[in-house]
């Protein structure tokens, strides 16, 4: 597994992590067991960045993560998110406390603002985030779905901490961030955490067969390889089945050549 630095910190995180959207919401015990097995297998393979949110299944995803990492807390970097309706100062503190309880941990590694909320002053929200850092309840502050301007406002609202990441939709087939957000984050050393890197399972048949055969990779692996080409990006594909987890982990065992990277970029540009 490759590892990259988180923002301007010395924290090393895996290039391929794991997302948990819609996980933990299964009705049957068998399905839950499969999800737990997938998360634990992912950790075995080095995918030790696990991302969740209080919004996912109304906390059920966080509880699933808690069960998966119960005896391996020191091996993983847990990222979760506070919902935008909870951006008032006291609500941020309460949401964090609730997430800590559901995750069964004393500290959240990366706490992210899930979506911008223009109705609540960002300075109030970031004051709460810094208070959580001061209290030792979170280690790093991140954003999700923030534009360049919103990211700048968030950073300027912090008195002594840095925004380390911005989690956004990014894939071979969804590239709107490349116009302004991507270069800004690269320049400011803010890690891009790519969610839906497989375009929510819509694996593109436009990937040339010559490329998949050349690298002996599936189309999904090619997509993950492409999206994590640059050092400023890590990806968090969701995988609830062992086969897909193992497929994701192997996606960067070797790298696309510059020529093939550019070919794919032009096809989907």
Task: Explain how this protein is built.
The structure is a single chain. By secondary structure, this protein is an alpha/beta fold. The protein has one domain: NADP-dependent oxidoreductase domain (TIM Barrel, Alpha-Beta Barrel). The protein contains ten helices and ten strands. The strands form two sheets. An eight-stranded parallel sheet has the order 3-4-5-6-7-8-9-10, covered by helices on one side. It has a two-stranded antiparallel ribbon with strand order 1-2. Helix 1 crosses helix 2, helix 1 (29-44) packs parallel to helix 9 and helix 3 packs across helix 4. The model has no long low-confidence stretch (mean pLDDT 95).
Quick structural overview:
By secondary structure, the chain is of the alpha/beta class. It has ten helices and ten strands. Helix 1 (29-44) crosses helix 2 (60-69) and helix 1 (29-44) packs parallel to helix 9.
Topology (elements, then pairings):
Elements: E1 3-5, E2 12-14, E3 18-19, H1 29-44, E4 49-51, H2 60-69, E5 77-82, H3 89-103, E6 108-113, H4 122-134, E7 138-144, H5 148-156, E8 163-169, H6 181-188, E9 191-195, H7 209-215, H8 219-227, E10 233-235, H9 242-249, H10 258-268
Parallel strand pairs: 3-4, 4-5, 5-6, 6-7, 7-8, 8-9, 9-10
Antiparallel strand pairs: 1-2
What structural class is derived from the secondary structure elements?
Answer: alpha/beta
Q: How many runs of DSSP E, i.e. beta strands?
A: 10
Parts with pLDDT < 50 across at least 5 consecutive residues = none
What is the assigned CATH homologous superfamily? NADP-dependent oxidoreductase domain
Strand order of the largest sheet: 3-4-5-6-7-8-9-10
User: Order of SSEs, N→C?
Assistant: EEEHEHEHEHEHEHEHHEHH
How many angstroms separate the termini? 28 Å
Shape: globular
Largest sheet: 8 strands, parallel
Please report which band the strand proportion falls in: under 5%, 5-15%, 15-25%, 25-35%, 35-45% or over 45%. Answer: 15-25%
Number of domains in the coordinates?
1
CATH architecture: Alpha-Beta Barrel
Radius of gyration: 18 Å
Supply the CATH class. Answer: Alpha Beta
Average of the residue pLDDT scores: 95
